[in-house]
Design goal:
The structure is a homodimer of 195-residue chains. Chain A has 195 residues and is mainly alpha-helical. The first copy, chain A, is built from four helices and two strands, in the order H-E-E-H-H-H. Helices cover 68% and strands 11% of the residues of chain A. Chains A, B: Keywords: Cell membrane, Membrane, Transmembrane, Transmembrane helix.
């Protein structure tokens, strides 16, 4: 009787934790999709007068696009892949039973993939952060001039994407911690000393 | 009798795993220390003739230092902090008994710290990678010229530090995976259904 109660408690807790993990994964998905879209749509054009011939000004139009910086391209790819990863994990949780698990391999593969996702998302977001810092402030030692004074909206939009990506990383970390904590807590099948 | 055998098997396996984790942590420590030192010592001077007055050439000496790029400063700090983290974890494993653990909090704190370390190391290394790419190839859209043609050794040394940091990240990931896998496998105290 006591064992049945305990089993009931464990399964109720398990489903609550599963709901929490699904919620966190959906939030991470939204954050990475937002980061991908905001960065992929980042484009700003400006027209500058460079000279005057007679009374006619000579103008050139310069367009700043996200593709112009390799770090931004990696950022878009990384956030898109992380979004696909979230979708895959969500469908795995919702449509594939927990029973299909070979010797705890499912847990360790999911954890490893989550960890790799955190690593490359963090890399992409931080690279964009430092490229943004360079674009805003320039670097006098390397004689790289700042460009954000002319393309302010472009830089702000890039910063927004970066922020969304960092929020996504936070949710990925929470998912991973909840998963790991709960796996260690309620996983009798993996434990050779369990009843 | 069977239970005693099982307990013996578990503790033998636990100590083998502990040795593996210590080995991986020491390797991670070496990698991050190497990355810190190689980057912190990165400095190259070049003398250029900029003009000739009469027969006397006018020369200027330009020095490239790692401090000139914010990404490099973050890289050195991140790898130094990761090295301290490894040292702390190693001393925790070697000198503080596994018994001092409040409701599995020790495991979750160590795992969370390892994950955060992976995230910021990956961020620092990737930021340096993209700054290096910019220094090598320049960016015609932003009119940022390449600088590595004049400071080749400086750029190569930075790349070496980056590589060491990525190797460190790999070891941190392995440590984390081994820790997580083993915790789920042999942790009867955390399991309400265990014997």
């Amino acid at each position: 009787m006591a064992v049945e109660k305990l089993v009931g408690y464990v399964s109720a807790r398990k489903s609550r934790v599963m709901m929490l993990v699904i919620l966190l994964r959906v939030l991470a998905l939204f954050a990475t999709i937002a980061a991908t879209v905001v960065m992929a749509l980042n484009k700003e054009s400006h027209t500058f007068a460079v000279a005057t011939i007679g009374n006619t000004p000579v103008k050139i139009t310069i367009t700043a696009k996200f593709q112009h910086t390799p770090a931004n391209i990696m950022f878009v790819v990384a956030n898109a892949v992380a979004s696909l990863h979230s979708l895959l994990m969500l469908s795995l949780m919702c449509f594939v039973s927990q029973k299909y698990d070979f010797k705890g391999l499912r847990f360790i593969i999911v954890t490893a993939l989550d960890m790799v996702t955190i690593a490359y998302l963090s890399g992409a977001a931080t690279a964009v952060a430092f490229m943004g810092e360079l674009a805003r402030n320039g670097n006098s030692h390397a004689r790289w001039n700042k460009v954000c004074d002319n393309f302010e909206r472009y830089c702000d939009q890039g910063s927004g994407a970066m922020l969304a990506s960092y929020i996504g990383i936070l949710f990925f970390m929470l998912v991973n911690l909840v998963n790991i904590f709960e796996h260690g807590r309620f996983n009798p099948s993996k434990n050779p000393l369990s009843a």
